[in-house]
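User: Please predict structures.

Assistant: First:
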Amino acid sequence: MIKKIYILIFIVSLASCNQEKDSKTNNRNLYFDLQGYFEKEVARLQKLNPTLGKTVSVNGVNESKKVKVTDWKKELAIFANADINKASWQGSFNITKVGGAVVYSSNNKKIPVKKLYVVGQGAKVREIEIIIANKNILFQSNDTLYYYPDSLYLIKKQQKIRLLNEKKYTISGKFK
């Protein structure tokens, strides 16, 4: 009798393992696949190896230079990390279509990505805008990210830490 119970437990645990694997493979993106898009962009830009005119501004003080980016994954990580297809965020975004644009927006306080704006023609993306807001007792941050393939990316960041002055950062990269 005990052997039958062990065999039954083994079969049930084996079946549950297979169900988890199936649920992972059937997990489809409910929203625009931002992470997948930037993985493709990284591969494309690694191949093209364009020169980038990069400008960094901190509280209005600018520094510019031309660079050859060696790690596009790191360079565009802030965009890919704003992916809204996290399992815990499913159903938290409103989807609005306006002309050739799709807007994903959320007012959930626990979700930092407030808006993802994607303009495209068919499968070709022409513009991406992302608004990210983080806030807690000690820290407040607002980021606006823009990406125009083969043209420009722009990162605007506003940061306020309690008892310190506000800082404003801007990073832009123009493709040459």
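Second:
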Amino acid sequence: MNTILEALLTPDQVQLTDADRRAAIAKLDSAVRQAALTPSQASDRHEQVLAARTRGELRGILSGVANAAPPRGLTVALQAVTGVWLVACVVQFVVWLALAVFGHFDGPWWLWSDLGLGAIVAILWWTNETYHRKTDVLVAP
């Protein structure tokens, strides 16, 4: 569970996997094919990708390559909405539990808002992850 929260609250600190490195190298190769990078620039960045440890470092390496890394705003939105969601979950559960202790037991009404916010977190996470999984870059016409 801790790794899930880590990925949601600090997505730039997530350790790179081999799949992340392969996808980044494929993006660099795609950028060379589309003349967005020169072969020597891509070669330098290949070495940096192999030495990188976190997704935040990878973001810096892929800077200047369009659509290669998630926008900073998406990462911040993921962190903010996840934080709000976790706080809302805990507060609503504690209120529900306190009401139950004092004899006002209702069904788990707090699930509706927690599931709704959770869906937003899931969409933001999925969008953020698609940047790390795709293997090509798109150049604007």
